[in-house]
Specification:
The protein has 225 residues and is mainly α. The protein has a single domain, classed as Tetracycline Repressor, domain 2. Helices cover 62% and strands 0% of the residues. The longest helix has 19 residues.
Amino acid sequence: MAPAIARAPARIPTSERILDEVERLIAVKGVFGFTLRDVAGPLNVQVPAIYKHFESRDDVLVEVSRHFIGLLAQQFSGTSGRRPATALRKDVDRFVEFMMSHPAYVRLALVDFATPGGGMEYVKRAAGGSFLDNFSGGALAPMHARLRRILSAGARSGDFRRVDPSDFYRVVKSTLLIRLVFPDDVLLLRPPTRAEIRSVQRWLWDIADRFLEPRASPQSRRRAV
């Protein structure tokens, strides 16, 4: 039997290494807290080498944003055959894990929301439009459409009260973003433990569940009194 031939580990393309380092730096220094020199140092390359792959610092941030937008677009996929409440609970749990696993996205999202005109230019380029545009078009439109279907199914089944899907998304995303940065951002500065992820998942679902809780009719309230 011929001896096995050792395979050299696959070489990670320099462009991917640059984007990985930018994500790490955003998480620990913020969107505007690093330079391309900071990126080049740990990679043992010179700044001009980065320009072989990206035209500018903004171009690097567009690519990082595009990666996150692609992952965000996969959220709220629903689960076939499950009750809407069960499916949505799974979706909210996945959303928490996504955000906690990508701290750079949390930083980007907060700066994006603070930018007039529907977000930072490079995030809008990555998403194909502004926040409002992405409810009906752009990369995130299918995600918003899936969320609308889950909430509509839950309202029909009596699991949820009828709510505007954009209001539900506002509650879930904004609440989670604040939870991860206030009063401290320690969960963004190191990999979270499974226990920490589960704790945030329970916390966020409790808020989402209360927001969606069916309200008693005036007649039932009078009977209760």
